[in-house]
Amino acid sequence: MLRFIATRLVQLVVICFLISVFAFLLVHLLPGDPTLAILGPNDTPAARAVLLHQLGLNKGLLSQYGTWIINILHGNLGASFLTKQTVSNALGVAVPIDLELVIVSQVLALLVAIPMALVAALRPNRIFDRVATTSTFAMLSLPTFVAGPLLVLVFAVTLKWVPATGFNRLSQGFGPNLKSVILPSVALAIGSITVYYRLLRADLIATLQEDFVTMARSKGLSTRYILMRHVMRPSSFSLLAGAGISIGTLFTGAFVVEVLFQLPGIGFQLVNAIYGRDYLVVQGMALVAAVAFVVVNFGVDFLLTVLDPRVRRA
Amino acid sequence: MSEAAEPSGAFVSHGTVATGMLGPEGVVATLAPTGFLPKKGKGIGITFWICAGWVLFMILLALLASVLPLKAPNFQDYSSVNIGPSARHLLGTDDLGRDLLARVIFGSRVSLVIGFAPVLIGLVIGGMAGLLAGYRSGPADTVLNAVSFVLLAFPALLAIMVIETFWKPVTLLKLTIMFAFVSAPLLFRVIRATTLSFSSREFVVAARATGAKTSRLLLRELLPNVLPAAVSFALIGVAIAIVLEGSLAYLGLSIGLPTSSLGNIINDGVNSNNLSLNPYIALWPSLYIFLLLTALNLMADRLRSYFDLREVSL
Amino acid sequence: MSRFGRRPQLSFPDVGSIEGPLLEVDDLHTSFRTGRGLVRAVDGVSFTLSRGRTLGVVGESGSGKTVLSRSIMGLVPGTNVERSGTVRFSGHDITAMSLDELREVWGMQIALVFQDPMTALNPVVRIGRQITESLRLRAGLDRKAAYETSVALLRSVGIPAPEQRLRNYPHELSGGMRQRVMIAIALACGPKLLLADEPTTGLDVTVQAQILDLLATQQRDRHMGMILVTHDLGVVANRTDDIVVMYAGRVVEQAPTAELFAHTRMPYTEAMLRSIPRLAESSHTRLRAIPGRPPDLATELKGCRFAPRCPYAQDHCRKEEPPLRTAGQGHLFRCWYPVGSAEGDAALAYNVAARVPAALAFTGTPVRDAALLAPNPGASA
């Protein structure tokens, strides 16, 4: 068991290291001089030399990478050229937004998917099951960049229930905050609903055929009790797996949603940094995003392997 | 429902996979097939063929676009701006007076190429590598495995965005290459896993015992068995690519104008002016993408139900 | 009492006051509609059982005995099941009951001990809760009373340190202990009828004896009716009052235990008896297994279902299925050429002379006959 944890940790560290190298190389090895981009019209050889020295770009790649990593480990992710704000500050603004989006969207998705899956699993292949599976299939074919604008069109433009863009912090009140977050969360939840539904339904159907369910019935226990106290428990691991898979959806979707709804999360800031050729920010944020992503994935997988009594460990 | 947790696999747990980079379409890859097949198991079902026909029809339209009696997609007719569907413009016009039907069909060329080309490349490269690696484990296999693991761990959208920042201008070719880098590891892993599961089966051992050459073995015995899984995941890969391109376009990071992909058109159509004035601009390409994705997902699902490919994990 | 809605009120008379048989099964049929046709798993079973008596139901895999035990309770789920016949329990017709009414009966009046405790116990729920949930939800005990009752229950089934065991998960207990837990769970609400489905399969022989003794003790103390379902004649030999032998969904012989063993009539029963290895024989004695396999229940079966494997079978058997006939003393059997009768002996001799493979195997004559290895007609392919 300990060996398993150790192996996983080692893998994780290796991946993070590789990601940092990758992020670094991406920015530094590509054609196109960042100084040109940054200086713009003020581009003179002298200015460029100064900038190069400032950015440390005239040193060797390895030493640049070393400096960067050491800075990171000291908590210094660099600063933006455009806004003069440190990346850490920017992250401080962005992360809570992303967290809120993730939490709200997943809660929404679960609220829809769990009851649907329960009903479908109790009567598989009948009307409800077919309708539900088909509609979740359709949801899968609605990319975020289609669903998002659609939602905006209906709820923000036509019905005017919620604002189309902008983020209201929690400090400004629960109501406004919810209003600005609900539409993007729904857009993100759409992709996750299918995942949770399909996984949970399959797991429930399998669990319902187990002997211990028949035994519970033979004790005269009610269907509701059996579902809630006997069946959901082993099947809930599917939800955890679904969460892991949803991370992938959320990641791509979040970029689109943040840009569409103008929410200053990591995606939004990253996109702006890319537009503005703010390469240090791009590097730092990309690193953070990728590492967070990998860590969460590993974490979910690790939890699944460890917690689920049905998964055999190699 | 218990599967052994494979320590070296990319987040394999519970028979499902949480590979991070997969966008909303990728989740179809990880979910068990719906199992909806026609009763009596007669063939793969009419749904499959309808979808296949539809996809072929779309491809055909795109291929023959120049020959068809379509208006010029970039011709701006200021006298007919923002007209809804009418006799002269079957799908209406956009805010610059361009015929939407033509724009959609010509735009679909780009989207379809972006969808299919990288996946074909990935299928060939990743597929061959996967076959070899799955059949004959060795140092090469371990290396490739590790490389694909890392490539898959890094969120694709992020990588592509960052690359694009500095590798301007974005062309179809560059996008194709980048997408190929995304799809190849995926297909490599799928085909490797499938090949592995078949290699130990008796008919392979038998063939080898009769002295069959490796190439013959690969081609005649393994390939036909691996093909259904490969094709199914390839279809999903196409869906992923199309969504990825659309997301990029939404962020303004897809192919530069005047080449319009469907994503670009949607991007045009969802800025706040157009969305309320002329929702058709965004509607038609969105509908097209929706139908295309549904067809692809359904095909992949039916394929997997028919060949019972439940256990393919990455 | 119950937190989840009101339950229908049925009255079940108390311990000593019952008159008449506890359980009457009358021509019970249970069939499954499958893709291959209608599988008649239980094809006309009738018997009665009184309180304090034990019935053994014996048959090989696929004989329908497990489906029988579930069908008696009405526990067979679903949509593709056809059930006919009547089951009367304590005066009530439980075949006509609604699901809600049945739930009243399950656990409290009739309990089922499942075959494999590893799959029948929820692996992620502690033992304690699996016992107390019936006590709290069905018998209406509060938490303290339920706890104390479950401790007492575990003690009464012979589990040491019951307080600790209550907190264990199923996989933390040994096979024998799990089976005892299953029995405890079944007995928790004091049922009047206990259906034990292969309660000893998979256990060591010594543990088997303990479990069977335990069941016998509990039955005596609680004055329950008990049905022991098993494939092992040895299990039912000394522990049952009556035995029903099933084959391919049909009852083929039914008698009080002593009578069954003393005057076996059905060749199938006889073959089963002979197949039990005896201690007195040397260790290299060849086992006298019954060759072949039971028939495919989805197909239309003609004639006696055991005919393809029967050493006594004649053409008459293959054409027409024998009805259940009585041999006196409550002994029913289904055979044209029963064991120990003149026709039977003649039939066997005839078959041996004709080198029928089943007969040769039965008499122990070595058979170098390829026909013996071929699949039996009527058996599933």
Write structural notes for this entry.
The complex is a heterotrimer of chains A (314), B (314) and C (381). Chain A is 78% helix and 1% strand. Chain A is an all-alpha fold and 314 residues long. The model of chain A has no long low-confidence stretch (mean pLDDT 79). With 314 residues, chain B is mainly alpha-helical. Chain B has 11 helices and 3 strands, in the order E-E-E-H-H-H-H-H-H-H-H-H-H-H. A two-stranded antiparallel ribbon of chain B has the order 2-3. Chain C contains 15 helices and 12 strands. Chain C is α/β, with parallel strands linked by helices. The N and C termini of chain C lie far apart (53 Å). Classes of the chains: A mainly alpha (314), B mainly alpha (314), C alpha/beta (381). Chains in contact: A-B, A-C. Chains A and C meet through helix 9 and helix 10 of A and helix 2 and helix 4 of C. Strand 1 of chain A pairs parallel with strand 1 of chain B, so a sheet runs across the interface.
Outline the biggest β-sheet of chain C. Answer: 8 strands, mixed
Global geometry of chain B: elongated
How many DSSP H or I helices of chain C?
A: 15
As residue ranges, the low-confidence spans of chain C are 1-6, 369-381
Helix content of chain C: 25-40%
Radius of gyration of chain C equals: 22 Å
**Beta-strand residue fraction of chain C:** 15-25%
Give the termini separation of chain C: 53 Å
Neighbour order of strands in the largest sheet of chain C: 6-7-8-3-9-10-12-11
Oligomer: heterotrimer
Mean pLDDT of chain C: 83
Distance between the termini of chain B: 17 Å
Count of strand segments of chain B: 3
The pLDDT mean of chain B sits at: 75
- Rounded to the nearest angstrom, the radius of gyration of chain B is 22 Å
What is the ordering of alpha helices and beta strands of chain C?
EEEHEEHEHHHHHEHEHEEHHHEEHHH
Show the largest interface: A-B, 81 and 74 residues
Strand content of chain B: under 5%
| Main sheet strand line-up of chain B | 2-3
Please report the total strand number of chain C as a whole number.
Answer: 12
What are the SSEs and their pairings?
The complex is a heterotrimer of chains A (314), B (314) and C (381).
Chain A: H1 2-29, H2 34-39, H3 45-55, H4 61-73, H5 87-122, H6 127-140, H7 144-158, H8 174-208, H9 211-218, H10 223-261, H11 266-275, H12 279-307, E1 312-313
Helix pairs in contact in A: 1-12, 5-6, 5-8, 5-10, 6-8, 7-8, 7-10, 8-10, 9-10, 10-11, 10-12, 11-12
Chain B: E1 4-5, E2 12-13, E3 16-17, H1 26-30, H2 46-63, H3 100-135, H4 139-153, H5 156-166, H6 172-199, H7 202-209, H8 214-250, H9 262-269, H10 272-277, H11 280-307
Helix pairs in contact in B: 2-3, 2-11, 3-4, 3-6, 3-8, 3-9, 3-11, 4-6, 6-8, 7-8, 8-9, 8-11, 9-11
Chain C: E1 23-34, E2 37-49, E3 54-58, H1 65-73, E4 81-89, E5 92-93, H2 99-105, E6 110-113, H3 117-120, H4 127-137, H5 143-156, H6 162-166, H7 175-187, E7 193-197, H8 205-222, E8 225-230, H9 233-237, E9 242-247, E10 250-256, H10 257-262, H11 267-275, H12 315-319, E11 325-326, E12 332-333, H13 342-353, H14 357-363, H15 370-373
Parallel strand pairs in C: 3-8, 3-9, 6-7, 7-8
Antiparallel strand pairs in C: 1-2, 1-4, 4-5, 9-10, 10-12, 11-12
